[in-house]
Write a structure and sequence with these properties.
The chain has 474 residues and is of the alpha+beta class. It has 16 helices and 13 strands. The protein folds into 3 domains: 61 residues, B family DNA polymerase, palm domain (Palm domain of DNA polymerase, Alpha-Beta Complex), CATH 3.90.1600.10; 78 residues, Ribonuclease H-like motif; 197 residues, DNA Polymerase alpha, zinc finger (Hypothetical protein af0941). Helix content is 39%, strand content 13%. Its EC number is 2.7.7.7.
């Protein structure tokens, strides 16, 4: 794929033809051609994407949604789940403002959950299709597999069922999160649709297993939302869905990622914890988020939660009226180092979490199956997720870089020198620059504390001795 950075489709095609010509002339045994022109693209991994494809019909370019490799293409997801994913993709690829898109997604999920709980969704939309890999009686763990349970029930009624048959069923009743109960509550779609059957779809099961997982994966690259917020919109227990970087840090060969040095700070450090400091005067906490947060165009949410520390000509001060106590350099350094040690301890706890939000398994033991999740009961059933570090080397290294950046005066001044937002007073910006210069020495002490830990971290270095040391031997 080639990003042309063009809004005009004719210009994009022209650039594609130029690229095609250059490649075909240089590599005579290789001939490439333009397959598609995408206006917008949501790329999750290789061969997993959704895009707005531009198709020419009678001289007029029309838009068409194209989806490859995503959950909505898998038949084990019901039609309601696929319809929800399609609706969310329409929001994500609409080109609207990101904040508006996130609001639309949240509103749609709330309306969907309300509609499902009021049983306003037709029962056939809950149908799940699963193909049997072998004869129903040959499954050793049939008790936790809904499709096999449905097949066994059909066999008991004298109906023929064999390997490769596709089971169409609906999970009914209330499974309470149990895989065995969900399997026992699985009924063939014909039984559910029968008049006076009394079978009602298990709404909580479908929200947990059919709606939330694909929605969470679609929205994973989008800032402004996370799995806990999505679960809340669906009316689910948010305590089961911890916000962690498990799905982001899992080392998979099919993940396409940008070089860290090319990622803007507000994206690279969005999962980092802010520096919380304790005022020795009023014994209350406040945060320090760097020089750029002292400027008037700081994050509008900065005032929410813990207040932001005030920068004075004598260092940081408590922002609360009636206190305003200055924080000494030694106090700042000690509290900074305590937070660094807390992050380091969290890393060495080495907890593993499942990247499937519907599972949420958290453990410190790696199984003999490697990264495969063993499920809530440790029986390797009921979950197909992958285990990843809850707090990875990359997460710790980025946290250290973030903390160092808070006290890097030169980096802060560089950010302050970028174009300002319309309406911001220039004198306020200049005031922060002057205060930064006056605190350079104090901040330098705190910066050295963080650099001491960064120097001991091997994440940011490539060991040439380890790679090519063999060449020096003999």
């Amino acid at each position: 794929m080639v990003n042309t950075n063009q809004d005009n489709i004719l210009e994009a095609i022209k650039m594609g033809n130029e690229f095609k010509k250059a490649v075909n002339e240089r590599y005579e045994l290789l001939e490439i051609e333009i397959d598609n022109v995408f206006r917008r693209l949501l790329l999750h991994a290789k061969k997993k994407y959704a895009a707005v494809n531009m198709i020419e019909v009678d001289g007029v370019w029309k838009e068409k949604m194209e989806v490859k490799g995503l959950d909505m293409r898998r038949r084990e997801y019901c039609q309601l789940s696929k319809d929800t994913s399609t609706e969310l993709l329409n929001f994500l690829l609409s080109g609207e403002d990101p904040e508006k898109v996130v609001a639309q997604i949240h509103d749609h999920l709330r309306a969907l959950a309300e509609k499902m709980r009021s049983h306003s969704v037709p029962a056939f939309k809950y149908t799940i299709y699963t193909q049997l890999g072998k004869a129903p009686k040959e499954y050793p763990n049939a008790g936790s597999m809904p499709s096999v349970q449905v097949a066994l029930k059909l066999l008991a009624k004298g109906k023929p069922v064999k390997a490769k048959d596709v089971m169409a069923f609906v999970i009914c009743g209330s499974s309470s999160g149990s895989a065995e109960k969900a399997a026992n509550n699985a009924h063939a779609i014909d039984e559910v649709l029968a008049k006076d059957s009394g079978l009602v779809p298990d709404i909580d099961y479908y929200l947990h297993k059919q709606i939330l997982p694909p929605v969470e994966r679609l929205c994973a690259p989008i800032s402004g939302t996370n799995v806990a917020m999505l679960a809340e919109c669906l009316g689910l227990d948010t305590s089961k869905y911890r916000v962690s970087g498990a799905s982001q840090v899992a080392e998979r060969s099919d993940v396409i990622s940008t070089l860290e040095s090319q990622v803007p700070d507000h994206i690279r450090f969005k999962e980092c914890e802010a520096l919380g400091l304790l005022c020795l005067g009023c014994r209350r906490r406040f945060e320090f988020r760097g020089l750029s947060y002292q400027a008037p165009d700081a994050d509008p949410d900065a005032s929410e939660g813990a207040p932001i520390g005030a920068l004075t000509n004598e260092g940081l001060a408590c922002p609360r009226e009636g206190c305003r106590k200055k924080m000494g350099t030694l106090t700042l350094s000690c509290q900074l180092e305590a937070q660094i040690r807390r992050h380091t301890s969290r890393y060495y706890e080495a907890f593993l979490v499942c990247d499937d939000p519907a599972c949420g398994t958290r453990t410190r033991q790696m199984s003999v199956y490697g990264r495969r999740c063993l499920g809530p009961k440790g029986l390797a059933i009921g979950c197909s997720g992958r285990m990843a570090w809850e707090y990875s080397e990359k997460g710790l290294y980025n946290q250290l870089l973030y903390l160092r950046g808070l006290f890097d005066v030169d980096q802060g001044l560089e950010k302050m020198g970028k174009p300002r937002v319309a309406g911001v007073k220039v004198e306020e910006s200049e005031k922060v620059k002057v205060l930064a210069g006056m605190n350079r020495e104090r901040f330098g002490v705190a910066e050295e504390v963080v650099k001491g830990y960064l120097d001991r971290s091997a994440w940011g270095w490539v060991s040439m001795e380890g790679l090519f040391g063999f060449a020096r031997k003999g």
